[in-house]
Structure formats: C-alpha cells, structure tokens
Amino acid sequence: MEAVAWRGLVYTIFILHFVLACQLILLQPLVSALDGKPGNAADLFERVSQSIKVKRYTEALDDLNTAIEADPTLSEAYLRRASVLRQLCRYEESERSYNKFLELKPGNSVAEKELSQLLQARSALETAQSLFHSGDFKKSLEYVDKIVLVFSPSCSKAKHLKVKLLIAERDYSGAISESGFILKEDENNLDALLLRGRAYYYLADHDVAVRHFQKGLRLDPEHGELKKTYFGLKNLLKKTKSAEDNVSKGKLRVAVEEFKAALAIDPNHIAHNVHLHLGLCKVLVRLGRGKDALTSCSEALDIDPELIEALVQRGEAKLLTEDWEGAVEDLKSAAEKSPQDMNIRESLMRAEKALKMSKRNDWYKILGISKTASMSEIKRAYKKLALQWHPDKNVENREEAEKKFQEIAAAYEVLSDENKRTRYDRGEDIEDMGMGGGGGGGGFNPFGGGGQQYTFTFEGGFPGGGFGGGFPGGYEFHF
C-alpha cells in the first residue's frame, strides 16, 4: 500500500510540474518584463500593434489583458490598452487604464496628453448627440468630424452618428460612402445596413435600398427599424404603381387619391415625391382643376426648379385659372430650356394668344350677352344699354356715361357685323374693329373733338320712356 501511495504522490508532483512548465512556456511572451528579457515584451507589443493595424481590436485587448493579469506592474500594457479603448470610444474603461498607468508612471506627458484627448472626445460625442437630437445637424457633424473621430477613429457610435447626420443633411452619397466603410469591417452590421439602405432610398434608388433592408432582415427578422423602413418602402411603391396604372386606365379621379396617398407616406422623400407631385399635377390639369394643379406643379418645382415638364404643366394650370401672364411666363421659360420642343412652343403660342385676347374689350360682356347670342338678342341688349347710358339721361355723371356709351356702341359695331364678329371670335387682332378699336380708347369717340360724326340708327325705335316717350322707328340722331 505504501508503494502505491508513494507512486501516486510522485505522479501528482509530476503533473503539477508539467502544468507549471506549460504555463511558463505559454505566458513567456506576455511576462517577459518579469524575467528581464525586454525582447519578449517587444514581441508582445509588436503583435498588439499588428492587431490594431488590421483593426483586430478584440485580439489586441485580449493580449494586453492577459499580460496585465500575468504582471499587474507591466505599465506599458496599461498605456496600450488605454489607447485602444480610447480609439473605440470605450471612455470609462480607457480612463481607468490611463489612471492606472499614471499611478505606475506619474507625470508621463504622453499619457497625460492622451487622457486629455479622451476627455475632449467624450465631451464632444455627448455634445454631438445632443445637437443631433435638437436638429443642429451641421454643428453636430463638426464635433464628430473634428474632435471625436480624430481622437477616437474607430468609434462605432461616432461613425453611425456621422452617417445619420449626413442623411439628415441630405448628403446621401456621403452617407453611402461612410456606411460602406463600416460594412467593409463588418458586413453584417445591422445599423450600417439600415442607414445605407436609407441613403439609397432617399436617392430613389429603391432596388438597392430593398436589397440592404432584406439582408438586414435575414440576419434579424424582428429588427423593428428595418421592418418599418422596408415595409414603408414597399407600400410607397405599391401606391405609386396603383396611381400610374389608374392614369393609364383613364380613372383619373381614383389616380388623384392614389397620388395623394403615396405623397402622405413620406413627405421627406423628395427625390421620389417630385415625380408624384408632377403626376398629380398632370392628372389635375386633365380634370380641369387648375387651382389644385397649380399647387401640385409648384410643389414639384420647389423641389426641382429645372423640371421642364412641371413648368409646362404649371403653365397649363395657369391657363385654366385665367392667369394669362403667369402662363406665358412659365411656358416661355420652358421653351428657353428646351428650344427644340415644338409642343412647348405651340403651348406658348396658345398662351400668348390667350393673353392678347384677355387684354381686348369683351364685347359680349359689355352688352351683357352670351357668346351664342342671336342677332336679335344683340340688338335688344344694345338698344336697352344705349338708352340707359345716353349722356343726355346722365347729366350728373356725364363723363362716365359717355365712356359707357362709347363702349356699348363699339360692342354693337363689332357684334352686329357677321364678318367682324367671326373674326373677333377667332381672336384676330383687328385694331380698327369697332369704335373701341379692340383696346378701349384708341378708336373713335362720339363725344370727342375733331368734328367727326357718328350715326345711330334704331330700326323699330327706342323703347318708350327715354326721351319724351321714345323715338319713332328708323329715327337717326347725330353727335
């Protein structure tokens, strides 16, 4: 029994020595400072430097932590660890490591400088986050770029915040580039996939955006923001297609509601909404809803002032609202931007003609009759108004009466002549058309000087009651 016990004791001692020997062999590079071989410490720190260079921060920290556990007095390991943690913006851990190093190496200028940078970076990150939430994106971006990422270049919080800020500032290309760097380091980074997808979304590159969202959802099917953004995009595309399909089917009123529903999904998606506003404007023009069309086209032009089609459609909308000068202005601008487009030039000519016609006297309106009035209706209206506004019956307001009487006579001069009336209805510019000359005041004035004479002939006489019981039929009077 004693021999067995003795062999067991010897075996146990052998195992313990073997384990100790293995530990010494494995930890030799990490505890080199203890055995007076600085070359082994140099190997450790060289390995740590290489890990940091290829952004294997976890491996570098593992090596440093193991070295510190083996030798809590290995000051250089604390400094290296503090620096890595600062770059990752793990500021509390980093600060503790700097302080431990300074306990071992009081007054070290390098550590004191880096600790100051840590404090600046931490404060800047907190300020940047606060500015982001308050909506001051530009200032927030300055803190991130000029302080945080200078002292903490591998800070994932700062990198993600920068991408969010670039999106908020509508620098979508910049956001795509920055999020691409994050994904190069970690292709499965869900936040980077979400943000990069959003940047493509706001550029209206929806296919690429969908691919980013789908990849993220494959990694985490329950990711709230990814689900919300992905299904929001799918709904937007569905509403847009429905609106366009209804336009092609001639269901214009249904299309109007679909366009409005699509626009309500994301008012900030201007790269897509500009086309929705334009589509809605075109439908409203076709429906003759000029005022509503004007609003939609203006929304499109607010987003893209160079959108020629929106200028043309707004010009058409202004024609519907009888804003002749505005229509000419928009269509002229569109024609200048696209001088070879004959359709635009035809629309411009039509608007210019409408503007010119709008400046003529409206003879139908002056006589208070419709454009389809018969000759007998024209004569009756003329006789009634001529009697009403005859200067001899309006002594107290003779000047106004003379002007009105002149307009009435000019209107009758044109509308009672079939040839002149036809030419007037076609919009022809006939300067000597009627007493009013087509412009009100440039033609013959029966009450002016110069000795000219105008003859009014009323077949059937004036209605009674005007001048002592009325004039007999066919009576002529002169001015």
From TrEMBL:
Signal peptide interval: none
One cellular-component annotation, GO: endoplasmic reticulum lumen
UniProt KW Zinc keyword: no
TPR repeats: 75-108, 190-223
Domain J: 362-428
Keyword terms: Endoplasmic reticulum, Repeat, Signal, TPR repeat
Compartments (UniProt record): Endoplasmic reticulum lumen
Top-level lineage group: Eukaryota
Pfam families: DnaJ, TPR_16, TPR_19, TPR_2
SMART domains: DnaJ, TPR
UniProt xrefs under PROSITE patterns: DNAJ_1, DNAJ_2, PROKAR_LIPOPROTEIN, TPR
Keyword Endoplasmic reticulum: yes
Major localisation: endoplasmic reticulum
Alphabetical list of InterPro entries matching this protein: DnaJ_domain (IPR001623), DnaJ_domain_CS (IPR018253), J_dom_sf (IPR036869), TPR-like_helical_dom_sf (IPR011990), TPR_2 (IPR013105), TPR_rpt (IPR019734)
The name this protein goes by in its record: DnaJ protein like
Species: Quillaja saponaria
